[in-house]
Amino acid sequence: MSFDRFVANRYLRAKRKQSFIGVISIITLVGITLGVASLNIALAIHNGMRGAFITSLVGETGNLYVVANSLVDYSWNNDEVQALGQTIGTVPGVQAISMVRQEPGVLVSKQRRLNYCKLYGVIPKTHMAAAPSLRQLEAGSLTQLERAEGLRPGIVLGKDLADDLGVRMGDDIRVMVPRLSSPGLSMRPGALRLKELKCEVVGLFKTGNSQFDASDAYLLLDQLLMVLGTDEIQSILVNFQTLEDMEIGKTALRAHPDLLPSANVVDLRDLNQGLLSALALEKLATTAVISLFILIVALNMISALTMLVMEKHRDIGIMRAFGTPRATIMRIFLRQGMTLSLWGTFLGSVLGVIGALIADHYQLIKLDNNVYEVLSYLPFVVRPHEVVLVALGSLVISLLTCLFPARQAARMDPVEALAYE
C-alpha cells in the first residue's frame, strides 16, 4: 500500500478532535448519494415518457408516410402509385405497404350531433398489415369495410369520436365530404359542395392517443374515391420490421434516385418536432438543476477538507520536515475527498437504478388515462450510458471541489506548521 493511501485511510478512520468535521463528511456522502440517485431516476422518467410518446406516434415497429407534396402534385395517378410501390419495395426492412386517400370530412349522427373528422380511404387487408394498431379493434374489424352488395357502406371510427357523436356499433351515420366545384366557363367562382354518403358503423378502435381516436375514420378506398370522383391517392403508409429498420429505410428512401419529386418521406416525429424538442429541453433543464444540487453538496467537501487540513497541520508539518513531497501531501487529501465521492456516487447509482427498475417492473406510479392518454403508469427506462455519464459527472465535480484544500495542504510551510508545537 502506498504511503499516501495509508495515511488517507488512517485519517478517514481516526476520531476527530472536532466532531462536526465528521458530521459534514457524512452529510456530503449522503448528499452525493441522494443527488446521483435522483438524477438517475429523473433521467429514467424522461426516457420512459419520451419512449412512450414516440411509440404512440410511430408504433412498436415503425411507420413511414410517403405523402404528395401539395406544392408539386397534390395526388398521384395509378401509374405513379405503381412506380412508388416498386421503389418502396426495394428498400430493406419494408414489411407492408398501404395506399391511402385522406380527406377532411364531417360526420352527422342520428341525434344530429356533428363532428369534424379525418377520413381515410384504405384497403383493409393491406392497411391492417401496415398499421398494427388497427389489427385488433375495440369492436368489429377493419375487414368489415368490404361489405356485400346491397348493404350500406361500412365505416370504422375512433372510440372517442364515436362517443362524441353518440353512436355505437350498427348505428347509421352520414358522412359529408366538402369539395370545391370547378367554376367552368362562367365568371362565377367555384362553390363549396358537400358530397354525402350514408354509412353503418362496423368497427371502433382505440389507440390510446386522442390525436387519432378523436378524429380518425376509415372507409373502403374505392367508396371514398367514388364519392370524390377520382382514382388518385396522396399518401402511402410503409411499415417496417423494427424501428432501426425504419430509420435506415427513411434515409435510404429519401436518397432513392427513383423517388418521385412530388413525394415527401416523413414520420409522425417530423410532424411533432416541437413537442419532442420541448421534452429534450425539459430533460436538459432537469439534469442541470439536479447537477447543481450535487455541486452544492460537493462544496461541503471543501469545508470538511479545509477544517481537516487545519486539524492535521502538525502532521503535515512533520511529513514535510521529513521530506515528503508536496504531491504526496496533495494526494492524501484528494484521496480523502474522492473516497467520499466514490462511495456516494456508487451508492447513488445503485439506489437510482434499482429504484427505477423496481418502479417500472411493478408499475408503482399509476397515471390517469384521461390526462396521460398513452400511459397507464409512469414508465422508467434506464440507459447504461447515462448512468455512467452521471457517475463521471459526480466524480469530476467532487475532484474539482477537492483540489483547493488539497493544494493548500501541499503548500503549507513546515516551519509555520510546527512553530507553536
What's the short version?
The chain has helices at residues 3-13, 19-58, 78-89, 124-130, 159-165, 210-213, 221-228, 243-254, 268-271, 273-311, 313-321, 326-361, 384-410, 414-417; strands at 63-68, 94-109, 114-122, 139-140, 154-158, 172-180, 192-205, 216-220, 235-240, 263-266. With 421 residues, the chain is of the alpha+beta class. Strands 2-3-8-5-7-6 form a six-stranded mixed β-barrel, surrounded by five helices.
Account of the 3D structure:
52% of the residues lie in helices and 18% in strands. The radius of gyration is 33 Å and the shape is elongated. A six-stranded mixed beta barrel has the order 2-3-8-5-7-6, surrounded by five helices. It folds into two domains: 3-57 and 275-417, no CATH class; 63-266, no CATH class. It starts with a helix and ends with a helix. It has 421 residues and is an alpha+beta fold. The model has no long low-confidence stretch (mean pLDDT 83). It has helices spanning 3-13, 19-58, 78-89, 124-130, 159-165, 210-213, 221-228, 243-254, 268-271, 273-311, 313-321, 326-361, 384-410, 414-417; strands spanning 63-68, 94-109, 114-122, 139-140, 154-158, 172-180, 192-205, 216-220, 235-240, 263-266.
